[in-house]
Design brief:
- Helices cover about 30% and strands about 20% of the residues.
- By secondary structure, it is of the alpha/beta class.
- Helix 2 links the parallel strand 3 and strand 4.
- The longest helix has 15 residues.
- The radius of gyration is 17 Å and the shape is globular.
Amino acid sequence: MTETFRSADVEHDAGEFEPFAHVWVADDGGSAAHRARAWAEERMAIRDIPLDAFRVGDDGDPESMPTLPMPHPADVVVVGVSDAESRRRARGLVTLFGCSVAIVPEDAAPGSGIVCGVDRLSDAGMTAAAAGAEAEHAGAPLLLVHAVAARFEPFSTREGRTDPALRIGRATVERHHPTVELSSRVRSTAAAHALLDESRGRELLVVGGERISSPASVLGELIDRTAIPLLVARGGGSSRLRE
């Protein structure tokens, strides 16, 4: 189900998301790390964003941490994945860092278009703003997806209304990235299933930066199963470690 909304329908705010200013690639010396660096260099080159690397060990723990404070905030950490063990390490880095993290599968095929999952009111605007920025830089269409349990669908879609988080996401993109080709969709299924399904054949999946509270969490499942690059967007671009 695809819907459109006017920006005036909701109050919206891009939250604390700021454009990326610095990129760090997690380097374990493997081929997946080389693929991740190539992806980061290609995606960030048009924005003239500096890129550096730091070493990670077999257990996923950083061996040479960026020194804080850094001359540029570590706005996004990029990590390559190739198997179940490297995805487990990626989970650890997502938990460790408070900034945005991009997970890049080594065998990711070229795709077209960007998908963004919007769920919580607390970060819907920030997540959509991050996705809108990526879509604008890539010249790609953006699809916002909101998953709702089947038993709640009549409430979410009756009389043309949809979840406030999706409306805030749309209005944020329309205000801050008006040139982006934008659409939205409500899916009556589990969130991870909806996002994995909608992201098939796409170039990037963007989600908010929830904590990985359990192996069954939506973010944890996406890290374990995504076949395309996944950007876990967080506001503020902070390089500080999580407490």
